[in-house]
Amino acid sequence: MSVFKALRISASGLTAERLRMDTIANNLANANTTRSAEGGPYRRQVPVFAPILDQSMHGAASPMPSTSHGQGVRVVGVVSDPSPPRLVYDPQHPDANADGYVEMPNVHVVREMVDLITATRAYEANIAALNSAKAMAQRALEIGR
Prior knowledge:
Elements: H1 3-29, E1 45-56, E2 67-80, E3 86-89, E4 101-104, H2 109-143
Antiparallel strand pairs: 1-2, 3-4
Helix pairs in contact: 1-2
C-alpha cells in the first residue's frame, strides 16, 4: 500500500468520525426539543457510512476470485432514527396532549455519550494511523539523502 493511499484512507475516516461527532452533538443539543419544523418532537439523527472499495479482477480465466480492497469510508447520508418518541407525563407542559403526556425526542443521553466516546476513539485511531504513515514517508525521504 502506498503512503498516499494510507493518508487518504485515514483522512476519510477522520472526516466520517467528525461528522459522527457533529451529529451526536446536534442530538444532545436537541434532547429536550418538543417542537420541530417537521412537526412533533425532534428526531434523533444517525449518519450512514459505506466503504469505498477498489474492485480488483485477476482475469476472467483466473482461478483466483475477485477481491475488494478498502479505500476508506464515505458518508451515504444522515437519516432520522425511526424509533418512536418517548412519552413523558407533564400536564403543565405547553405541548402536552389531552391526557397530559408530552412527546419527547427519541434521544437517549447515555446512548449518545457512549456513541460520542466511540467516535472520539475512532478519530484518535485515525490520527495515529495518519501520523504513522507520515512518519514512514519522512523516513523514506531520509533514505534518499
